[in-house]
Amino acid sequence: MLLVVEDDQDLAHLVEYNLNRAGYKCHISGSAEDALKELSRKSFDLVLLDIMLPGIDGFELCRQIRQHQLYKDIPIIMVTAKGEEIDRILGFELGIDDYVVKPFSPRELNLRIRAILKRDRRHGGKMQEVLKTAGLEVDLARHIATLDGRELVLTLMEFKLLVALLKRKGEAQSRESLLSDVWDIDKNINTRTIDTHITRIREKLGETGNIIKTVRGLGYKLEEKEDG
Predict the structure, then answer these.
(1) What is the pLDDT along the chain (228 residues), one digit of tens a residue?
(2) CA separation for the pair 50, 48 (Å, rounded)
(3) How far apart are CA 197 and CA 128, in angstroms?
(4) How is the chain split into domains, by residue range?
(5) What's the CATH class of domain 2-122?
(6) Of 31, 58, 74, 217, which residue is the least packed, with the fewest Cβ within 10 Å?
(7) Which CATH number fits domain 129-222: 1.10.3720.10, 3.40.50.261, 3.90.550.10, 1.10.10.10?
């Protein structure tokens, strides 16, 4: 999933159209404030970020993303009409991964996104993370979950749901946001499916399953513990 932060709706939907054709799913945010809200709710693979935004500008949003423990490793491509060297330098100093100047061709943007995502998977990007808590370890690159060194047998959806909980451990997550992360908001899936999968994950974790807490009226959270 790509997050497109662009206040020009016509341009945003044109970018979305071309990225959808290239096989990417997108979410459009028209402001930095909305982008930060979406980042707190969903997992994104890359951010396309305009500099000129209402309120908080793209530079400040980039700074906040890079300072946040949950989002700091998300690749960022800055997309802007400004082509001055000072803007490029400031962008790279703030931690952007690439810089595209408007007007740009859809093919160029697609190639830059593809190159960054491939690099991110190969070299220490978030796809290489090992998430840990209470003796539980989830290796994203190898797609393996272990508990006290013993490999867990999880279905694909159980694995993705466990990852979603681990990435925001200590934070309450609604059933709807978990559905969005794991099933990409499939309209044929209802929130009770989350409950069923949580029950199965708890069973497979045994006594450690109590780290997944039910948040009444909302959803679930994975309790923060010292890494095992």
Answers:
(1) 899 999 999 999 999 999 998 889 999 999 999 999 998 888 888 999 999 899 999 999 999 998 887 778 889 999 877 666 777 778 888 888 888 888 888 888 888 898 888 776 544 444 447 889 989 999 887 788 999 999 998 887 788 899 999 988 889 999 888 887 776 544 455 667 889 899 999 999 999 999 999 999 999 999 876 554
(2) 7
(3) 25
(4) 2-122, 129-222
(5) alpha beta
(6) 217
(7) 1.10.10.10
